[in-house]
Design goal:
Growth Hormone, Chain: A, 19 helices, globular, about 475 residues, mainly alpha
Length: about 475
């Protein structure tokens, strides 16, 4: 859990420090954005390789090695004297950090007996869901009171303790077997090229005006060709680098579809809300973190509740409840205005966080519960990757729609201004700009809510099994054997 929390917080804490890093290192906004992009590109390449790397190096050695790489890279990041030096160190950090989340999830799931796996996923969820809320708050405090290298140096004591505890306590599962056939360099190259190209397109598409850019066109085509070729190769390889056969389990497949959608909503709203708080409501970075924090606390509370009741209630009911509550709260936040304050944000965030706990814990438990132990490490990596890509798609789509909706709203509102009513032109222009932003942010929040409402019926197609430690539906236990 130490490694997981460290990696997740570090992925979010950097975002609030980018302006300070740019000013200190003399970098442009475009250049400093690679501090975040480089980390993500490296981590998404490592995630699907989690199963193969775990089997090749052993659970203990692999997890300890990832912690060591991440911790050493954190030290190097804090000592960087140029922007591209920092980007290179962040890529190294992403290589270590990309495997921490799926490996931690697999360790917890394998360690706990089936009847306690709901509690295991609740523990995992405390880090996976609460971390993104703590990151901006902690980052805002550090930037306001100290200097940006500290956001990397705080990883050092945590990383050292996690490394030593891994060597002392994490076992190597007896069922892990070293992969046969050696390293598939062609498959690794295709996977790396495809995922890196796709992630770049999603990260930079809006900035580069999407398909008006030849770079975006080239990388999109490259991503499609590389990933299709990679999938074909893995499905026909006797010793695949990434075992895609886990998708033969219907519950795993449906669970990951819902995971992509939840990633879309979680990452998308995690982008929209801070932007709205800072650009429209005038919150500082620390104020924004404090506004997001009640949701994290509510998530922690709901995860504890779900961990206790999952063995007694059909988890599909819990997942459906979580999706509906998340949708309701997001629709509620779609009514915020430029005059909203902290308490107008507080209660929708509490409801949203509460629903998230009901969504994440049973979804992770049932999705991975459909997979045998010997395939769990790879399945966890693939599942984490898909959730990350769902978030990247959410961010890319919502940022594009945001720019489009603001432009449409500004044109519409400006066209309706026929006289100044005693206001100066600059004041009227500012009023139109703020109103356009409010309309656009509210539109995107309610669009996200609708996506959750429409996607909720997908839970019907999941088949909880007793292997997951969840309470199966009355008629589902036999069907789960076939799935």
């Amino acid at each position: 859990m130490l490694g997981l929390i460290m990696a997740i917080i570090d992925a979010t804490i950097v975002n609030v420090a980018l302006n300070n890093i740019a000013g200190n290192l003399g970098a442009s906004i475009d250049e400093v954005s690679w501090v975040a992009t480089g980390y993500i590109l490296a981590s998404v390449i490592i995630m699907p390789l989690n199963g193969w790397l775990t089997a090749y190096f052993g659970r203990k050695n692999f997890y300890a090695g990832c912690l060591a790489i991440f911790t050493i890279a954190s030290l190097l990041c804090g000592t960087a004297h140029s922007i591209w030096q920092l980007v290179f160190y962040r890529i190294l950090q992403g290589i270590g950090g990309g495997a921490l989340q799926p490996t931690a999830q697999a360790i917890l799931f394998e360690t706990y007996p089936p009847e306690k796996r709901g509690a295991a996923m609740a523990i995992f969820g405390l880090g996976a869901m609460v971390g993104p809320a703590i990151g901006p708050t902690l980052g805002g405090y550090i930037i306001d009171n100290y200097s940006w290298p500290l956001i990397f140096y705080i990883n050092l004591p945590i990383g050292i303790v996690a490394f030593l505890m891994t060597l002392m306590y994490i076992p190597n599962p007896h069922f892990l077997q070293k992969p046969k056939g050696g390293i598939d360099w062609i498959g690794l190259s295709l996977l790396s090229a495809g995922l890196a190209s796709l992630q770049y397109v999603l990260e930079r598409g809006q900035h580069d005006d999407w398909f008006q850019s030849s770079t975006i066109w080239t990388l999109t085509i490259g991503a499609i060709v590389s990933l299709i070729w990679f999938v074909w190769r893995e499905l026909h390889d006797r010793h695949p680098l990434v075992d895609l056969n886990v998708f033969r389990y219907r519950t795993f497949t449906v669970g990951n579809i819902i995971g992509v959608i939840s990633g879309f909503g979680l990452f998308g709203t995690s982008l929209i809300l801070p932007l709205f708080f800072q650009t429209v409501l005038g919150f500082t970075a620390f104020d924004t973190g404090m506004a997001l924090l009640p949701g994290a606390v509510a998530t922690a509370i709901s995860m504890v509740i779900v961990g206790r009741i999952m063995s007694k209630i059909d988890p599909r009911i819990l997942v459906g409840f979580g999706m509906i509550v998340f949708g309701i709260s997001t629709w509620w936040m779609g009514g915020l205005t430029e005059n909203s304050g902290y308490w107008d944000v507080f209660w929708p965030r509490v409801v949203q966080g509460f629903g998230l706990g009901f969504l994440f814990v049973p979804l992770s438990t049932v999705t991975l519960g459909a997979v045998p132990k010997e395939e769990l490490a790879g399945a966890s990596g693939v599942s984490t990757l898909l959730r990350q890509l769902g978030g990247s798609f959410g961010i890319a789509i919502l940022t594009t729609l945001l720019a489009r909706e603001i432009a449409i709203a500004q044109n519409t509102l400006a066209g309706g201004v026929t006289q100044t009513h005693g206001f100066s032109i600059p004041v009227l222009s500012q009023l139109v700009t703020v109103a356009s932003q409010v309309i656009s942010y509210d539109y995107l929040l309610r669009l996200t809510a609708i996506i959750f409402f429409v996607s909720t019926p997908l839970v019907i197609f999941m088949r909880p099994s007793r292997r997951s430690g969840a309470a199966p539906a009355p008629a589902a236990s036999k069907m789960a054997m076939a799935d």
